Amino acid sequence: MKTALIIYWSKTGNTEKVANAIKQGLEEASIQVTIKKPEEAEALDYFDYDLVCVGCPSYSWHPPEPVTNFLKKKFAEYRQNGKIKPSAPKVPGKNAIVFVTYSGPHTGIDEATPVGKDIRQYFEHIGFNVIDEWYVLSEFHGSLEHSTLGRLGDVRGKPTAEQLQVVKDDSRRIGKLL
After folding, report:
1. How wide is the angle at C-alpha 54 spanned by C-alphas 53 and 58, nearest 5°?
2. pLDDT for 119-138, tens place per residue?
3. In this structure, are strands 129-137 and 32-36 parallel, antiparallel, or unpaired?
4. Tell me: the pLDDT tens digits for 17-63?
5. Cα-flanking dihedrals φ and ψ of residue 127, to 5°?
6. Is the dihedral of CA 123, 124, 130, 135 positive or negative?
7. In the chain, what are the domains?
8. Distances (CA, A) of 145 to 60, 87, 92
């Protein structure tokens, strides 16, 4: 049976909803899924899984500090263990998906893409095939102004059930391809 690891950090619940939609889709594709928060995943080895999904919100076009710290620690561990190699050769059968929730009250998705690219590099350096980066528009909790007056308009209530269904369907499709 193929296996997947989902690691996510969520302050307001948006990223957690996306992580759970990914889990549901992968399970529907008969993938055995482990879902953890960064502080629960420190002892886990990405190389034990066929697919690793890491997600977080965009905080001022950066991953939140708990995610950055987790990824740097894991990267240092893999460097010490010799898994970071020159030219980052691909490791067969090892895949990753990066997912980022964002509100973009100022510049929209441009606030989220640097986060996805940052996380992607951790996986590319250890030789994982990064299947995709997913960006999910979400509500900016705690600020009516940031949820209604940004470039993206009114983002209250996002991610919607429809958005989460797309994530679930995409995850199921990818799970069947593993």
Report:
1. 140
2. 999 999 999 999 999 999 99
3. unpaired
4. 999 999 999 999 999 999 999 999 999 999 999 999 999 999 989 99
5. 90, 10
6. positive
7. 3-177 (3.40.50.360)
8. 16, 45, 47
